[in-house]
Amino acid sequence: MSRQRTAAAEGMATCHDCHLLVAIPGGDDHGAKCPRCHSALHFRKPASLQRTWALLVAAVILYVPANTYPIMRVTSLGRSQADTILSGVVHLLEGGMWPLALVVFVASIVVPLAKLFALVHLLISVQRRSPKKPVERTKLYRLTEMFGRWSMVDIYVVAMLAALVQLGSLAQVEAELGAVFFGATVVLTMIAAESFDPRLIWDHRGPEQPRRTPSARGAGGDRKPGRDAKTAHVRKAHG
Amino acid sequence: MVHPPAPDRRDDSTLTPLPAGSVPARAWTGAHDGPPHLVACHDCDLLIELPPLADRAAARCPRCQYVLARGAHETIERTVALTVAALILFVAANAFPLLTMRASGNEVEATILSGSRILWEQDNGGLAALVLLTTFAAPLAHALSVLYVLVPLGFGFKAPGAADVFRWMGHVQVWSMAEVFVLGVLVSLVKLADMAEIVPGIALWALGLLIPTLTAAMASLDPDEVWDRLDRSLEMDDRPAEPEPARPGGEAAP
């Protein structure tokens, strides 16, 4: 099998926003702009690992009070009851509403936890330059991006209950601090997933795969004359 | 009623449509001639020669299976139609109550916006903003920016700032969570049904229709085609206006 080439190794970058493939002369992506949509060009998302770690650590920290503090308080005829995410699921189970309990359990507990673990796994495996199962890890990343939003269900339930149960002293539902922390966790993990660059998974795959070496352009002995003509239609970045 | 027998299919043998995903997108090795249509995989950065795609075919990255491109062309009109439908449903979903609760002689109606309004009144500004953004502002901004870019493009010209709006749209889309909201409303409905009489409102039906409409609109939108067409109209803007060549028997020259 002939060697596969990556865009970065050839001194080209895909625009994050419009997916145009752009040649960046000199191999320095600093300040390069997409000629089509004017968004900043990067071979890889800048400081992807650091950013993702920072957002992820913040999300993990906020996830603790999100689960220990109540997310809402139901006041009914002078009696007040506060529910955390987990106790809400337990109450649904006790009330015999197990399909609903399952939905809330998956959306509010399984999805956020799975997302945190998936991102930590991706970050660590990239940092250890693991060559294992890149296809599976890329798919894991796509799933993380796709399903993270479903954790918002509990926030919407709190909002709808608060909006509906407005009977003054008779019955009242209020959002509590846990919901704020939980909302922050969801937002932070979404931004964390966005800042992770899945291409890093593929960058560390042994010597046959040149790692982000745009400066090596022209140094390879395998270059045939006339190959530049083929890349000539790839547009050049604005300086 | 008896349907006529199906016509003999053997005549169609020359028209074997390519099933989705069957188009061999080749990793670029730089080893063959001819001008390749090069793209880089969004998820793994592999350089790939993209073949011309049949309608409804999809080209996947040979390395990581990312869908590189879909053979969908001339999708702008369909996307505009679906987005207009989605916008009408969105207006309906906001104009009518989602759920009505009747308990001990009281009646409370909740709309999409009342959730964030109540959270705001309960001094929970952060949550109110998050709910407002994901259920109202982002879906609305998303639909409006699609129309702002695509409608003029359908007529062959580029709206001012269209590239920026379309770029921005990609970022807004992530925060539009109408489908998650519907699940949240349904969960609330079942949760409260024990304690009080809950009546689903027109807005809930509108939201229920909005989700497949929005999904279809997004599936039909081909960003590559839009960028391509924006790009071409861009170049026409930059080019100095050339004098119209005189046509034979033209009406312009006396």
Explained architecture:
- The complex is a heterodimer of chains A (239) and B (254).
- Chain A is mainly alpha-helical and 239 residues long.
- Chain A has two domains: 1-43 and 212-239, no CATH class; 47-206, Butyryl-CoA Dehydrogenase, subunit A, domain 3.
- Helices cover 49% and strands 10% of the residues of chain A.
- Chain A has eight helices and six strands.
- Chain A has helices spanning 48-68, 85-94, 98-127, 134-147, 153-164, 177-195, 199-203, 227-231; strands at 12-14, 21-23, 72-76, 79-83, 171-175, 235-236.
- Chain A has a three-stranded mixed sheet, with no helix packed on it. A three-stranded antiparallel sheet of chain A has the order 4-3-5.
- In chain A, a hairpin with a 6-residue loop joins strand 1 (12-14) and strand 2 (21-23).
- In chain A, helix 1 (48-68) runs antiparallel to helix 6 and helix 2 (85-94) packs antiparallel against helix 3 (98-127).
- Chain A is elongated, with a radius of gyration of 24 Å.
- With 254 residues, chain B is mainly α.
- Chain B has two domains: 20-71, no CATH class; 76-236.
- Helix content of chain B is 48%, strand content 11%.
- Chain B has seven helices and eight strands, in the order βββββαββααααβαα.
- Chain B has a three-stranded antiparallel sheet with strand order 1-3-2, with no helix packed on it.
- In chain B, a hairpin with a 6-residue loop joins strand 4 and strand 5 (67-70).
- In chain B, helix 1 (76-95) runs antiparallel to helix 3 and helix 3 crosses helix 4 (162-173).
- The longest helix of chain B is centred in the middle third of the chain and has 30 residues, at 125-154.
- Chain B is elongated.
- The model of chain B is unreliable at 1-23, 31-35 and 239-254 (pLDDT under 50).
- Chains A and B meet through strand 1, helix 3, helix 4, helix 5 and strand 5 of A and strand 2, strand 6, strand 7, helix 2 and helix 3 of B.
